[in-house]
Amino acid sequence: MSSTFQFPEFYSFPPFFTVQPNITTREKQMALWRELILSYHTSKKIKTLVVHDCPLWKNSAIRRELSHDDVKTVIADFVKSGHGEWEDDTHTRCRILWRKPEQLASDIYTWAETNGYINNVCTVYELHSGEDVDGMSFDGCDEELLRRALAILEDQGKCTMFKGETSSEDGIKFF
User: Fold this and answer.
1) Where in the cell is it found (predicted)?
2) Residue 131's CATH number
3) pLDDT tens digits for 148-159?
């Protein structure tokens, strides 16, 4: 796990830690929170945000912290935007969608074209953890999200999936 995440400048701005009453300002603030949550979790390859245990809610350097209600507002916006989805009914764990399934599908297909996988086969494991995917948006991606992206490609007629002996050995042939 990477420990060198660089917090953006706005993270040190005290009003960032209070949901703003002005709707235009709040929309910009929520966009910044989405950006921060995504970049932090993607850089650290964290797939699930545990709401009560997220270090982003508190900036000790400026002695500011989101209130419990403001955390709910930020996470609700994050989920509504399509960048997260609840893993439980109590809304304590949120799956981070590093990229939306449609974006991942596009990234995967571009990767397949660039790396000569059109009319060739690779495994889900290779897409998830192979050497050829280092630095790609789907490198280390949540397997369920990866499979959703592949299902989109399959629906578009750009690939077909077939069963392997284990789930990580499931194959994908790109067209």
Assistant:
1) Cytoplasm
2) 1.10.10.10
3) 999 999 999 999
